[in-house]
From TrEMBL:
Residues 7-109 form the Phasin domain. It comes from Pseudoxanthomonas gei. It comes from the Bacteria. This is Phasin family protein. InterPro entries: Phasin.
Length: 130
């Protein structure tokens, strides 16, 4: 009986470790993807802003500032839109990861339930046999 309990505990421990490893891998992949999305957005915004400041630094008269001003506003708008789009993508990625983690937890509960039911059925059958 003790060997059976040890075997069940060992099996459960291995299943738990495998599930924890998969959950950690999913979380890490999500973090890497989110970091990539945010970094790409930051790079695009920096490139656009740097190009605008380069153009702005070459202006020498007031009339030229008037023509560049709308372009600066458009760049600021585009940067804000990129940040908003990246935020929505991050939310979508996080939701997908949470769904995958939920499915992982569900499968673990189902497996544990099946194991428990099999153990109860086996014990009941053994008790009836006596």
């Amino acid at each position: 009986m003790s060997a059976q309990i040890n075997e069940q505990f060992t099996t459960f421990t291995h299943q738990f470790a495998a599930a924890a490893s998969r959950a950690n891998r999913l979380a890490l992949e999500n973090a890497e993807t989110i970091f990539g999305v945010q970094l790409k957005t930051f790079e695009k915004n920096i490139e656009a802003t740097t190009a605008f400041f380069g153009e702005l630094s070459e202006i020498r008269d007031v009339e030229a500032y008037k023509t560049v001003w709308p372009k600066g506003l458009q760049i600021a708008k585009d940067n804000a839109e990129r940040v908003a789009a990246a935020g929505q993508e991050v939310i979508g990625l996080t939701l997908k990861t949470n769904e995958a983690l939920g499915q992982l937890a569900k499968s673990q509960f189902e497996a544990a339930s099946e194991t428990a039911q099999a153990t109860v059925a086996k014990a009941t059958k053994a008790a009836k046999g006596k």
